[in-house]
Amino acid sequence: MLSADQRQFWMVSSVYFFFFSVLGVVSPYLSIFLSGEGFSSEDIGILLGVATLMRVIGPSLWAQIADKKGQLHRLIQIGGMLAVISFGFIFFFKDFWPLLIILALVNLFWTAILPQMEVISLGITQGTDRNYSQIRLWGSLGFIVAVLLAGVWLEWFGSHRLPELIMLLMICLILNAFFLRSSPVTPQSTSKKNSLIKRMCTTPFIIFFCYAFCLQLSTAPFNSFFGLLLTEHLNFSGYWVGALITVGVFAEIVAFLYASRFFSLWSVKSILIVCVFFTILRWCILGFVPHIIPLLVFSQLIHALSFAMTHAAAIQFIHDYFEPHQLSRAQAFYAGLVYSGAGAIGAYLAGMTWQNGAGALWTYQWAALVALVSLLFVLMMSKEQPEPDSTHKGFQDEAQ
After folding, report:
1. Number of independent structural domains in the chain
2. Model-wide pTM > 0.85
3. Domain span at residue 355?
Protein backbone atom coordinates (compact mmCIF):
# COMPACT_ATOMS: atom_id res chain seq x y z
CA MET A 1 0.00 0.00 0.00
CA LEU A 2 1.19 3.47 -0.83
CA SER A 3 1.39 6.06 1.91
CA ALA A 4 -0.62 9.30 1.66
CA ASP A 5 2.54 11.19 0.63
CA GLN A 6 3.34 8.62 -2.06
CA ARG A 7 -0.19 8.77 -3.44
CA GLN A 8 0.02 12.55 -3.56
CA PHE A 9 3.36 12.35 -5.36
CA TRP A 10 1.94 10.09 -8.06
CA MET A 11 -1.27 12.10 -8.40
CA VAL A 12 0.69 15.31 -8.92
CA SER A 13 2.98 13.51 -11.38
CA SER A 14 -0.02 12.20 -13.34
CA VAL A 15 -1.48 15.71 -13.66
CA TYR A 16 1.86 16.94 -14.97
CA PHE A 17 1.88 13.99 -17.40
CA PHE A 18 -1.49 14.87 -18.95
CA PHE A 19 -1.00 18.64 -18.76
CA PHE A 20 2.12 18.41 -20.89
CA SER A 21 0.52 15.70 -23.05
CA VAL A 22 -1.97 18.34 -24.14
CA LEU A 23 0.91 20.72 -24.85
CA GLY A 24 2.64 17.92 -26.75
CA VAL A 25 -0.21 18.01 -29.26
CA VAL A 26 -0.96 21.73 -29.19
CA SER A 27 2.57 23.18 -29.33
CA PRO A 28 3.91 21.46 -32.47
CA TYR A 29 0.67 20.56 -34.23
CA LEU A 30 -1.88 23.33 -33.64
CA SER A 31 -0.35 25.46 -36.39
CA ILE A 32 -0.60 22.46 -38.74
CA PHE A 33 -4.30 22.07 -37.81
CA LEU A 34 -4.95 25.77 -38.42
CA SER A 35 -3.08 25.69 -41.72
CA GLY A 36 -5.15 22.68 -42.75
CA GLU A 37 -8.30 24.65 -41.97
CA GLY A 38 -7.23 27.23 -44.54
CA PHE A 39 -5.82 29.99 -42.32
CA SER A 40 -2.86 32.07 -43.53
CA SER A 41 0.35 32.44 -41.51
CA GLU A 42 -0.81 35.93 -40.47
CA ASP A 43 -4.11 34.48 -39.22
CA ILE A 44 -2.26 31.72 -37.39
CA GLY A 45 0.06 34.25 -35.77
CA ILE A 46 -2.90 36.29 -34.55
CA LEU A 47 -4.82 33.24 -33.28
CA LEU A 48 -1.82 31.88 -31.41
CA GLY A 49 -0.80 35.34 -30.21
CA VAL A 50 -4.22 36.23 -28.78
CA ALA A 51 -4.57 32.79 -27.21
CA THR A 52 -1.16 33.18 -25.62
CA LEU A 53 -2.00 36.72 -24.51
CA MET A 54 -4.79 35.30 -22.36
CA ARG A 55 -2.11 33.44 -20.44
CA VAL A 56 -0.76 36.84 -19.40
CA ILE A 57 -4.08 37.78 -17.82
CA GLY A 58 -5.04 34.40 -16.46
CA PRO A 59 -2.32 33.58 -13.90
CA SER A 60 -2.82 36.86 -12.00
CA LEU A 61 -6.60 36.39 -11.90
CA TRP A 62 -6.27 32.85 -10.59
CA ALA A 63 -3.59 33.96 -8.11
CA GLN A 64 -6.03 36.54 -6.71
CA ILE A 65 -8.56 33.75 -6.16
CA ALA A 66 -5.84 31.58 -4.60
CA ASP A 67 -5.05 34.39 -2.16
CA LYS A 68 -8.67 34.47 -0.99
CA LYS A 69 -9.64 30.79 -1.12
CA GLY A 70 -6.32 29.03 -0.59
CA GLN A 71 -7.49 25.69 -2.05
CA LEU A 72 -5.06 25.30 -4.94
CA HIS A 73 -6.30 21.89 -6.03
CA ARG A 74 -9.85 23.25 -6.39
CA LEU A 75 -8.62 25.96 -8.73
CA ILE A 76 -6.90 23.33 -10.88
CA GLN A 77 -10.10 21.28 -11.06
CA ILE A 78 -12.39 24.24 -11.84
CA GLY A 79 -10.03 25.79 -14.38
CA GLY A 80 -9.53 22.45 -16.10
CA MET A 81 -13.26 21.76 -16.38
CA LEU A 82 -13.97 25.23 -17.81
CA ALA A 83 -11.14 24.73 -20.33
CA VAL A 84 -12.64 21.42 -21.48
CA ILE A 85 -16.11 22.96 -21.87
CA SER A 86 -14.71 25.91 -23.84
CA PHE A 87 -12.61 23.67 -26.09
CA GLY A 88 -15.68 21.58 -26.92
CA PHE A 89 -17.05 24.42 -29.05
CA ILE A 90 -14.20 23.90 -31.55
CA PHE A 91 -16.14 20.95 -32.96
CA PHE A 92 -18.95 23.31 -33.99
CA PHE A 93 -17.25 26.62 -34.85
CA LYS A 94 -14.12 26.83 -36.99
CA ASP A 95 -14.32 30.29 -38.54
CA PHE A 96 -11.70 32.85 -37.56
CA TRP A 97 -13.56 34.93 -34.95
CA PRO A 98 -15.33 32.07 -33.14
CA LEU A 99 -12.06 30.13 -33.11
CA LEU A 100 -10.21 33.14 -31.70
CA ILE A 101 -12.74 33.38 -28.85
CA ILE A 102 -12.56 29.63 -28.19
CA LEU A 103 -8.75 29.58 -28.02
CA ALA A 104 -8.74 32.70 -25.84
CA LEU A 105 -11.18 31.17 -23.31
CA VAL A 106 -9.40 27.81 -23.25
CA ASN A 107 -6.07 29.48 -22.52
CA LEU A 108 -7.60 31.76 -19.88
CA PHE A 109 -8.98 28.78 -17.93
CA TRP A 110 -5.94 26.61 -18.68
CA THR A 111 -3.71 29.06 -16.77
CA ALA A 112 -5.35 27.98 -13.52
CA ILE A 113 -3.40 24.74 -13.63
CA LEU A 114 0.38 25.11 -13.95
CA PRO A 115 1.21 27.90 -11.43
CA GLN A 116 -0.80 26.09 -8.74
CA MET A 117 0.86 22.80 -9.68
CA GLU A 118 4.31 24.36 -9.29
CA VAL A 119 3.46 25.52 -5.76
CA ILE A 120 1.92 22.15 -4.81
CA SER A 121 4.94 20.29 -6.23
CA LEU A 122 7.44 22.38 -4.31
CA GLY A 123 5.31 21.93 -1.19
CA ILE A 124 5.11 18.13 -1.25
CA THR A 125 8.89 17.78 -1.71
CA GLN A 126 9.63 19.58 1.56
CA GLY A 127 11.14 17.23 4.10
CA THR A 128 11.37 14.34 1.61
CA ASP A 129 14.12 12.73 -0.46
CA ARG A 130 12.39 13.85 -3.67
CA ASN A 131 12.82 17.12 -5.57
CA TYR A 132 10.83 19.12 -8.10
CA SER A 133 12.65 17.69 -11.11
CA GLN A 134 11.52 14.14 -10.22
CA ILE A 135 7.91 15.30 -10.55
CA ARG A 136 8.41 17.62 -13.52
CA LEU A 137 10.04 14.93 -15.65
CA TRP A 138 6.65 13.17 -15.82
CA GLY A 139 5.45 16.19 -17.73
CA SER A 140 8.26 15.64 -20.21
CA LEU A 141 7.31 11.97 -20.53
CA GLY A 142 3.72 12.98 -21.21
CA PHE A 143 4.92 15.42 -23.85
CA ILE A 144 6.89 12.65 -25.60
CA VAL A 145 3.98 10.21 -25.59
CA ALA A 146 1.62 12.84 -26.97
CA VAL A 147 4.04 14.06 -29.66
CA LEU A 148 4.53 10.53 -30.98
CA LEU A 149 0.83 9.71 -30.70
CA ALA A 150 -0.13 12.94 -32.46
CA GLY A 151 2.36 12.25 -35.27
CA VAL A 152 0.72 8.88 -35.91
CA TRP A 153 -2.73 10.43 -35.48
CA LEU A 154 -1.85 13.08 -38.07
CA GLU A 155 -0.81 10.46 -40.62
CA TRP A 156 -3.80 8.19 -40.01
CA PHE A 157 -6.65 10.66 -39.59
CA GLY A 158 -5.41 14.02 -40.90
CA SER A 159 -4.90 17.36 -39.18
CA HIS A 160 -8.65 18.09 -39.00
CA ARG A 161 -9.04 15.31 -36.39
CA LEU A 162 -6.42 16.67 -33.96
CA PRO A 163 -9.03 18.40 -31.71
CA GLU A 164 -10.42 14.98 -30.81
CA LEU A 165 -7.04 13.87 -29.46
CA ILE A 166 -6.61 17.13 -27.54
CA MET A 167 -10.05 16.74 -25.95
CA LEU A 168 -9.29 13.15 -24.90
CA LEU A 169 -6.07 14.18 -23.15
CA MET A 170 -7.75 17.15 -21.45
CA ILE A 171 -10.45 14.88 -20.02
CA CYS A 172 -7.76 12.50 -18.69
CA LEU A 173 -6.13 15.46 -16.93
CA ILE A 174 -9.41 16.48 -15.26
CA LEU A 175 -10.09 12.95 -14.05
CA ASN A 176 -6.66 12.79 -12.40
CA ALA A 177 -6.98 16.32 -11.00
CA PHE A 178 -9.97 15.26 -8.90
CA PHE A 179 -7.63 13.11 -6.79
CA LEU A 180 -5.36 16.07 -5.97
CA ARG A 181 -5.10 17.54 -2.50
CA SER A 182 -3.26 20.66 -1.35
CA SER A 183 -2.47 22.28 1.96
CA PRO A 184 -4.48 25.44 2.69
CA VAL A 185 -2.62 28.62 1.75
CA THR A 186 -2.86 31.46 4.24
CA PRO A 187 -4.39 34.54 2.56
CA GLN A 188 -1.82 37.29 2.11
CA SER A 189 -2.06 40.53 4.00
CA THR A 190 -1.73 43.86 2.18
CA SER A 191 1.73 44.37 3.63
CA LYS A 192 2.87 41.01 2.23
CA LYS A 193 1.50 41.87 -1.20
CA ASN A 194 3.33 45.19 -1.10
CA SER A 195 6.53 43.43 -0.07
CA LEU A 196 6.21 41.23 -3.17
CA ILE A 197 5.97 44.30 -5.41
CA LYS A 198 8.99 45.85 -3.72
CA ARG A 199 10.92 42.63 -4.22
CA MET A 200 10.05 42.63 -7.92
CA CYS A 201 11.27 46.21 -8.31
CA THR A 202 14.82 45.36 -7.25
CA THR A 203 17.63 45.44 -9.82
CA PRO A 204 18.50 41.70 -9.72
CA PHE A 205 14.91 40.72 -10.46
CA ILE A 206 14.49 43.32 -13.22
CA ILE A 207 17.63 42.03 -14.95
CA PHE A 208 16.39 38.45 -14.56
CA PHE A 209 12.98 39.42 -15.93
CA CYS A 210 14.51 41.12 -19.00
CA TYR A 211 16.68 38.07 -19.70
CA ALA A 212 13.76 35.65 -19.33
CA PHE A 213 11.41 37.80 -21.43
CA CYS A 214 13.87 38.04 -24.33
CA LEU A 215 14.72 34.35 -24.20
CA GLN A 216 11.07 33.34 -24.22
CA LEU A 217 10.40 35.76 -27.06
CA SER A 218 13.11 34.00 -29.06
CA THR A 219 11.45 30.60 -28.57
CA ALA A 220 8.10 31.72 -30.04
CA PRO A 221 8.94 30.82 -33.68
CA PHE A 222 9.89 27.33 -32.54
CA ASN A 223 6.82 26.88 -30.36
CA SER A 224 4.44 28.19 -33.02
CA PHE A 225 5.92 27.18 -36.37
CA PHE A 226 8.42 24.33 -35.95
CA GLY A 227 5.84 21.82 -37.14
CA LEU A 228 5.18 23.90 -40.26
CA LEU A 229 8.93 24.28 -40.86
CA LEU A 230 9.23 20.50 -40.97
CA THR A 231 6.07 19.69 -42.94
CA GLU A 232 5.78 22.59 -45.38
CA HIS A 233 9.37 23.87 -45.75
CA LEU A 234 11.29 20.58 -45.44
CA ASN A 235 8.46 18.24 -46.56
CA PHE A 236 8.76 15.90 -43.57
CA SER A 237 5.97 13.47 -42.67
CA GLY A 238 4.05 13.51 -39.39
CA TYR A 239 6.18 10.57 -38.21
CA TRP A 240 9.34 12.63 -38.68
CA VAL A 241 7.83 15.58 -36.86
CA GLY A 242 7.01 13.36 -33.89
CA ALA A 243 10.44 11.70 -33.94
CA LEU A 244 12.39 14.97 -34.03
CA ILE A 245 10.35 16.55 -31.25
CA THR A 246 10.77 13.37 -29.20
CA VAL A 247 14.56 13.69 -29.49
CA GLY A 248 14.31 17.13 -27.91
CA VAL A 249 12.06 15.99 -25.08
CA PHE A 250 14.26 12.99 -24.28
CA ALA A 251 17.16 15.43 -23.93
CA GLU A 252 14.89 17.56 -21.72
CA ILE A 253 14.16 14.58 -19.42
CA VAL A 254 17.85 13.83 -18.98
CA ALA A 255 18.45 17.48 -18.08
CA PHE A 256 15.67 17.44 -15.47
CA LEU A 257 17.05 14.23 -13.95
CA TYR A 258 20.47 15.81 -13.40
CA ALA A 259 19.33 19.38 -12.69
CA SER A 260 19.93 19.17 -8.95
CA ARG A 261 23.54 18.11 -9.50
CA PHE A 262 24.22 20.98 -11.86
CA PHE A 263 22.79 23.51 -9.41
CA SER A 264 24.87 22.09 -6.58
CA LEU A 265 28.05 22.69 -8.61
CA TRP A 266 27.43 25.93 -10.52
CA SER A 267 25.59 29.19 -10.04
CA VAL A 268 22.42 30.11 -11.90
CA LYS A 269 24.36 32.70 -13.90
CA SER A 270 27.01 30.22 -15.06
CA ILE A 271 24.38 27.72 -16.15
CA LEU A 272 22.38 30.38 -17.98
CA ILE A 273 25.42 31.62 -19.93
CA VAL A 274 25.94 28.13 -21.33
CA CYS A 275 22.22 27.58 -21.97
CA VAL A 276 21.63 30.86 -23.79
CA PHE A 277 24.78 30.45 -25.92
CA PHE A 278 23.51 27.08 -27.17
CA THR A 279 20.02 28.51 -27.64
CA ILE A 280 21.49 31.07 -30.04
CA LEU A 281 23.27 28.25 -31.85
CA ARG A 282 20.00 26.30 -32.05
CA TRP A 283 18.08 29.12 -33.73
CA CYS A 284 21.01 29.74 -36.09
CA ILE A 285 20.84 26.12 -37.25
CA LEU A 286 17.10 26.43 -37.91
CA GLY A 287 17.60 29.82 -39.56
CA PHE A 288 20.45 28.89 -41.89
CA VAL A 289 20.89 25.11 -42.35
CA PRO A 290 17.72 23.25 -41.22
CA HIS A 291 18.00 20.91 -44.23
CA ILE A 292 21.20 19.31 -42.85
CA ILE A 293 19.68 16.41 -40.91
CA PRO A 294 22.54 15.78 -38.40
CA LEU A 295 22.53 19.47 -37.45
CA LEU A 296 18.73 19.45 -37.20
CA VAL A 297 18.92 16.50 -34.78
CA PHE A 298 21.68 18.26 -32.84
CA SER A 299 19.49 21.37 -32.56
CA GLN A 300 16.83 19.21 -30.94
CA LEU A 301 19.33 17.87 -28.41
CA ILE A 302 20.02 21.49 -27.44
CA HIS A 303 16.44 21.51 -26.10
CA ALA A 304 17.98 20.13 -22.90
CA LEU A 305 19.61 23.53 -22.43
CA SER A 306 17.35 25.98 -24.27
CA PHE A 307 14.27 24.80 -22.38
CA ALA A 308 14.89 22.31 -19.56
CA MET A 309 17.86 23.92 -17.84
CA THR A 310 16.67 27.49 -18.45
CA HIS A 311 13.29 26.56 -16.96
CA ALA A 312 15.02 24.87 -14.03
CA ALA A 313 17.17 27.96 -13.50
CA ALA A 314 14.13 30.24 -13.54
CA ILE A 315 12.27 28.10 -11.00
CA GLN A 316 15.41 28.01 -8.84
CA PHE A 317 15.87 31.77 -9.03
CA ILE A 318 12.23 32.50 -8.13
CA HIS A 319 12.24 29.92 -5.36
CA ASP A 320 15.36 31.40 -3.81
CA TYR A 321 14.51 35.06 -4.41
CA PHE A 322 11.02 35.17 -2.86
CA GLU A 323 9.61 34.25 0.53
CA PRO A 324 7.35 31.15 0.81
CA HIS A 325 4.17 33.24 1.09
CA GLN A 326 5.12 35.08 -2.13
CA LEU A 327 5.78 32.04 -4.32
CA SER A 328 2.28 31.55 -5.76
CA ARG A 329 2.01 35.13 -6.99
CA ALA A 330 5.65 35.19 -8.12
CA GLN A 331 5.06 32.03 -10.16
CA ALA A 332 1.89 33.56 -11.61
CA PHE A 333 3.75 36.75 -12.54
CA TYR A 334 6.54 34.78 -14.21
CA ALA A 335 4.15 32.47 -16.07
CA GLY A 336 1.96 35.36 -17.15
CA LEU A 337 4.32 38.11 -18.27
CA VAL A 338 7.36 36.05 -19.27
CA TYR A 339 6.07 32.77 -20.71
CA SER A 340 2.77 34.07 -21.98
CA GLY A 341 3.50 37.76 -22.61
CA ALA A 342 6.69 37.12 -24.53
CA GLY A 343 5.07 34.10 -26.18
CA ALA A 344 2.12 36.18 -27.41
CA ILE A 345 4.32 38.91 -28.85
CA GLY A 346 6.66 36.35 -30.39
CA ALA A 347 3.81 34.34 -31.94
CA TYR A 348 2.40 37.49 -33.53
CA LEU A 349 5.82 38.58 -34.87
CA ALA A 350 6.56 35.09 -36.16
CA GLY A 351 3.21 35.03 -37.95
CA MET A 352 4.03 38.33 -39.63
CA THR A 353 7.53 37.28 -40.75
CA TRP A 354 6.67 33.67 -41.67
CA GLN A 355 4.82 34.78 -44.83
CA ASN A 356 3.28 31.37 -45.50
CA GLY A 357 6.74 29.77 -45.43
CA ALA A 358 8.59 32.30 -47.58
CA GLY A 359 10.11 33.93 -44.50
CA ALA A 360 10.67 30.74 -42.50
CA LEU A 361 14.44 31.03 -42.26
CA TRP A 362 14.42 34.76 -41.52
CA THR A 363 11.98 34.09 -38.67
CA TYR A 364 14.53 31.87 -36.91
CA GLN A 365 17.31 34.31 -37.68
CA TRP A 366 15.60 37.13 -35.78
CA ALA A 367 14.94 34.63 -32.98
CA ALA A 368 18.72 34.13 -32.70
CA LEU A 369 19.23 37.90 -32.50
CA VAL A 370 16.70 38.21 -29.67
CA ALA A 371 18.38 35.32 -27.83
CA LEU A 372 21.66 37.23 -28.16
CA VAL A 373 20.03 40.17 -26.36
CA SER A 374 18.97 37.84 -23.55
CA LEU A 375 22.61 36.73 -23.22
CA LEU A 376 23.62 40.34 -22.62
CA PHE A 377 21.19 40.52 -19.70
CA VAL A 378 22.56 37.24 -18.29
CA LEU A 379 26.06 38.74 -18.31
CA MET A 380 24.69 41.62 -16.22
CA MET A 381 23.44 39.25 -13.51
CA SER A 382 25.32 38.90 -10.25
CA LYS A 383 27.43 35.78 -9.83
CA GLU A 384 26.04 35.26 -6.35
CA GLN A 385 22.61 33.69 -6.14
CA PRO A 386 20.13 34.90 -3.53
CA GLU A 387 20.39 32.84 -0.38
CA PRO A 388 17.70 30.12 -0.42
CA ASP A 389 15.20 30.21 2.40
CA SER A 390 15.88 27.32 4.78
CA THR A 391 12.17 26.53 5.13
CA HIS A 392 11.59 25.60 1.49
CA LYS A 393 13.30 23.53 -1.11
CA GLY A 394 14.10 23.88 -4.81
CA PHE A 395 16.53 22.21 -7.20
CA GLN A 396 19.53 22.64 -4.95
CA ASP A 397 18.94 19.45 -2.97
CA GLU A 398 21.88 17.25 -2.14
CA ALA A 399 23.03 15.44 -5.27
CA GLN A 400 21.87 11.87 -5.20
Report:
1. 1
2. no
3. 4-181+196-380
